[in-house]
């Protein structure tokens, strides 16, 4: 197990190094020169004020989404549950887009956007809680109501776009997910929130393990099933809201990375939860590096200097293919 964590940590370092040098505007040699104390003021600004915070935000958001997905899949005993099942992802998108359309937030004010996204994500989770009523602990009912809430909030986002068509760029960025334009303020807002709720998720490893065994076994072991599941859902909502507020709605990360983490680190959540955090960080960081490299290649091939491939588009394409594979291999799997 130690070797697996070490290998994954080494892979994270490799992905981080590739992402730092993958962007346009500077060659890898120039980046290395800046890291060694050289380079001019513009090059140092690009590396230290743009690329490094973007890298850290990608790592943090990936860790949050992966752990949120594993917590949800364990609490709901559903291998196809993801952060979207809580309604918090579309709620966070709606909050950020609405605040931008009303002029209350903008991409030049990260704090306002983050607060708006968190408020929207919490509102989406609250709406799910109200719809679930007395059946908060029913995994099937929670999942069904989560899908309905997500659909409703997605419709409201479309209505905002119709009212304010000038916000198309903001809608696309939040719906697809991107790390473009992330600065140190985004990171300073993300890491305390992520650290708090990642620690909370790890502390819930024992109750989550019992929930995965079924409600009857959990009750026989003396666990308050409804309270434990409520705390787990709260933790997943908070992690998802923080990630979406930072990078938008990255698709399939919270759905598929938990499967990979469990396959590598086993079913013991004391290991697989930290493993999921590290795996999610590697996946998002690697996808962002691949997106930047693809953007450079496409820009050269199409002679378009402004062409940018968002990381969310890449995770959506790869995630859809992997999801089909998971469904075909485990069509009726439950924990």
TrEMBL record:
Gene3D superfamilies given in the database record: ABC transporter involved in vitamin B12 uptake, BtuC (1.10.3470.10)
Membrane topology field: Multi-pass membrane protein
The UniProt record lists the keyword Cell membrane: yes
Main location as per UniProt: membrane
Swiss-Prot/TrEMBL keywords: Cell membrane, Membrane, Transmembrane, Transmembrane helix, Transport
Family, as annotated: Belongs to the binding-protein-dependent transport system permease family. FecCD subfamily.
UniProt-recorded name of the protein: Iron ABC transporter permease
Organism (species): Streptomyces werraensis
